[in-house]
Design a protein that fits this description.
Elements lengths: L1 E5 L5 H4 L4 E3 L3 E5 L7 E5 L5 E7 L4 E7 L7 H17 L9 E6 L8 E6 L2 E6 L2 H5 L1 H11 L5 E4 L16 E4 L7 E4 L2 E4 L15 H10 L4 E5 L5 H8 L4 E6 L2 H14 L6 E5 L2 H6 L7 E4 L11 H18 L4 E7 L6 H15 L3 E7 L18 E7 L1
Parallel strand pairs: 1-4, 9-10, 14-15, 14-17, 15-16, 17-18
Antiparallel strand pairs: 1-3, 2-6, 4-5, 5-6, 7-8, 8-9, 10-11, 12-13, 18-20, 19-20
Helix pairs in contact: 2-4, 5-6, 9-10
């Protein structure tokens, strides 16, 4: 196995079990690894540090093991088994909830891999070349460890590094599934399209936050901005909202939202959906809603876009705070991994100060337990949310 030799004192992060080796920490490479190969990382005194996947770029190695062990089928199977046992232990695998995240990258010590489960199908996304090369071993491990999973769908055409010399194709690695599938989440049903939909087909990470909105919705008028699948809208309706409006700039998203609302609340006149730009819609609706949900797509996927992203969060939240009813509740989120909790809070605080309204924090939100954060990898805390009372 190729050896990656680190510069003096550059081993400290690996000794703290942080799973990334940056290219600038490398002194020399013993051998000529291909992108995606497994490599051994050693310090300047040749002491073993980790085994990981090699990749061209800023993050040169993603560690999969901090012990000297053979990386074989049994190794991957044990990793999948550990991840599944966690989901069982926290009560996510049940008759009222057949959708959950099985593998969350570094949070499950499998950097570069995402796996979401929808009933009998696992949808796998690789974010590194190493995990792409290991996809069949991982698919076989998933089916072996979880008896109810019959199919594994691979969806990585848009997630792998664009510079990699590969041409990944989405498709079934194991089994097939031609039926129209419905995810069951806390007893509610949602159509899932992993073939054409965003991410793996549904945003599982907002499950607990949708439940919290349901708790506050009784007797309230609710606006769900950037609605996509309408998850927040459906929960608000079950919570007893008197009126729920869903807004998205995508006509396809509005079509999906309407389908999901109809699936759970057929012929319910409380819901209406609109294809519209967020700012245009908010400007046209002055203090009409008791609750507003702002759950935009990531404003920044690269550090170069951070400054503009923070400006965008400030502008959006200022508009939401300005337009909500007195005594209203604002749910606001950021799913940009490079935006820290502190930066997001500061953007929202600045927006509140700009409006001059009295604002109090009711809840500080994060991702759910099936999106665990590796304590040695704080960068894994990507979802940030605030629930605000606006006088």
């Amino acid at each position: 196995m190729t050896k990656i030799h680190l510069k003096p004192k550059k081993e400290e992060s690996l000794l703290r079990f942080h799973p990334w080796v940056f290219s600038g920490a490398i002194q020399r490479i013993e051998g000529k690894p291909a992108e995606g190969d497994l490599v051994t990382v050693v310090d300047c005194n040749l002491n073993f540090l980790a085994i990981g996947h090699y990749q061209i770029g800023s993050i040169a190695v993603r560690a999969v093991s901090f012990t000297e062990t053979e990386i074989n089928n049994a190794f991957w199977k044990q990793k999948i088994q550990n991840a599944y046992q966690l989901r069982v232990a926290i009560g996510l695998v049940s008759a009222t909830n057949n959708s959950y995240r099985l593998v969350h990258g570094e949070g499950d010590s499998l950097p570069g891999l995402i796996v979401d489960v929808y009933d009998d199908t696992a949808v796998m996304q690789a974010h590194s070349i190493g995990m792409h090369h290991t996809r069949m071993q991982l698919a076989e491990a998933i089916v072996a460890c979880i008896p109810e999973i019959k199919n594994v769908f691979y969806k990585s055409e848009t997630t792998l590094p664009f510079k990699a010399q590969i041409e990944p194709e989405d498709g079934y690695l194991i089994g097939s599934n031609t039926k129209e599938y419905k995810a069951i989440e806390n007893g509610l049903e949602f159509q899932v399209d992993w073939l054409k939909g965003q991410k793996t087909g549904f945003f599982i990470d907002q499950r607990e936050n949708r439940s919290l909105l349901e708790h506050y919705s009784n007797g309230k008028s609710v606006l769900n901005m950037f609605c996509y699948t309408g998850g927040f809208s459906v929960y608000a309706m079950r919570g007893g909202a008197t009126e729920v409006h869903s807004v998205d700039s995508s006509a396809k998203a509005i079509e999906l939202t309407n389908k999901n609302v109809e699936l759970n609340f057929p012929n319910d006149s409380r819901h209406a959906a609109f294809v519209e730009d967020a700012f245009k819609y908010l400007n046209a609706n002055e203090q009409k809603y008791d609750i507003i949900v702002l759950d935009p797509p990531a404003f920044a996927k690269h550090r170069e876009a951070l400054r503009n992203a923070l400006k965008g969060y400030k502008r959006l939240n200022a508009k939401g705070l300005e337009k909500i009813k007195p005594g209203g509740i604002l749910f606001t989120f950021s799913c940009s991994q490079i935006v820290t909790k502190e930066q997001f809070r500061l953007a929202v605080f600045s927006a509140a100060a700009e409006t001059g309204r009295n604002v109090r924090i009711l809840h500080q939100l994060s991702q759910p337990a099936d999106h665990p954060i590796n304590i040695y990898h704080p960068e894994g805390e990507y979802l940030k949310g605030l629930v605000l009372w606006v006088e």
